[in-house]
Structure formats: C-alpha cells, structure tokens
Design a protein that fits this description.
Layout (H helix, E strand, L loop, with lengths): L2 H30 L5 H18 L4 H36 L3 H33 L11 H34 L4 H19 L6 H14 L1
Length: 220
C-alpha cells in the first residue's frame, strides 16, 4: 500500500469523525441547552417575532417582506448549489475512475444535499408567509394553536436553511481532499474551531440564568 493510500484511509475518516462528533455535540446542546447556541436563541427570538406579527394585522406587510428576504437568501443558496453540482458532475465525468472520481462524488453529494435542504427551506418560508397573515376569526380551533403552528413552520424553514448552509461548509474539507489527505485533515479541526465561534454565544441570557437558578434550587 502506498503512503498516499494509507493517509487516505486514516486521515480522511479521522477528519470526518471530528466533524461528525462536533455536530453531534452541537445537536445535544441545541436540544438540552438551547440558550447557549445561536441556533437555539434565534429559534426563541423567531417565536417572539411571530407572536408580535400576528397580534397586530398592521404588521402583515412587514412580515411578508421579511419572509420574502429569507426566501431570496434561500433561492440564492439553492441556485449556487445546483450550479456547483453541475460543474462538479462535469469534472467527475472527465476525471474517469479512481480516487479523483470518489472525491468529486463526495463534493457533489454535499452540494446536492444543500440544494434539497434549501428548497425545503423555501417551501416552509412560503407556507409561513401565508399562515402569518390569516385573519384571527379564520384561525382553526384557537389563536394559541395557530400561532404555535406558524412558529414551528418558520423554525423548520430556518433549520433547513442552516443545514443547507452547513452542507456548503462540509464541502470545503472535501474540496481540499483533491490536494491530498493532509490538507483535508488539517481543515477539519480548523473548520470546527471556526464553527464553534459561529454556533455558540458567550453572553448569558435570561433563559440561561433561569435554567441555572432551577438547577441550584434542585440541588438545595
């Protein structure tokens, strides 16, 4: 076995394991300590925003314009993903077989996944744009149930957008894999470090303080 092949079989899985372990830990923090993550705090703020928009019918135009901006951002990301997928598919067909085709295939999977996720994001943003302007007397069962449903729909749209953007991040180490397994492996912990500062907040919010107070009361 050549040295390059040995490094491919050791460093590449190790780098992917680092990325996978970080995102598993991030998911755990989002579920159990959402106030410490940017994704969790944004989800809380979106719920407050939906309630504020639906309490006053005069906010309808503002709500639609805000959601339209989000749809445009998702559209740009989806268009970029499908364009890059086409380019990678051409490069993969010209590369023939071997390791090069496998590397291009990994990048292609990332971009196709990003495209599908951002398309789902557009779908949920479109649904939220209609639901958020439903008149009060036309809402099903109760006002509270309708607001909670719109909150979940909007948060789903944002989650899909975040995962689509995350697929772009995953493609960066795979792109460096073209130049060898060592650059790919080095880029994984560097990417994790950068994502850590983007994914976590270092300011203690009110939700976190209330959570700590509950833990202290339980200990006492």
């Amino acid at each position: 076995m050549e040295v390059r092949d040995f490094l491919d079989y050791t460093l590449v899985p190790s780098g992917l394991l680092i990325l996978g372990a970080y995102h598993a830990w991030l998911l755990h923090r989002i579920v159990h300590h959402s106030s410490t993550t940017v994704i969790g705090l944004n989800a809380i703020n979106r719920r407050f925003w939906v309630r504020a928009m639906m309490q006053d019918s005069k906010n309808g135009i503002l709500a639609v314009q805000t959601l339209r901006n989000n749809i445009m951002a998702s559209t740009v990301l989806a268009s970029t993903a499908i364009m890059l997928s086409s380019v990678i598919a051409v490069l993969m067909s010209n590369a023939g077989g071997g390791n090069s085709a496998g590397r291009f295939f990994g990048i292609l999977v990332c971009f196709l996944g990003g495209f599908l996720l951002t398309v789902q994001s557009i779908r949920y943003y479109s649904h939220a744009g209609m639901l958020i302007n439903v008149p009060v007397d036309q809402r099903c069962q109760s006002h509270r149930l309708s607001v909670e449903y719109v909150e979940r729909t909007l948060n789903k749209a944002s989650y899909f957008w975040s995962m689509g953007l995350r697929a772009f991040y995953f493609s960066f180490p795979l792109f460096l894999w073209i130049f060898g397994p060592i650059p790919m492996f080095i880029s994984c912990p560097v990417l994790v470090l950068l994502l850590y500062f983007l994914d976590f907040t270092f300011e203690k919010g009110q939700a976190e303080e209330e959570e700590e107070e509950k833990e202290e009361e339980e200990k006492q």
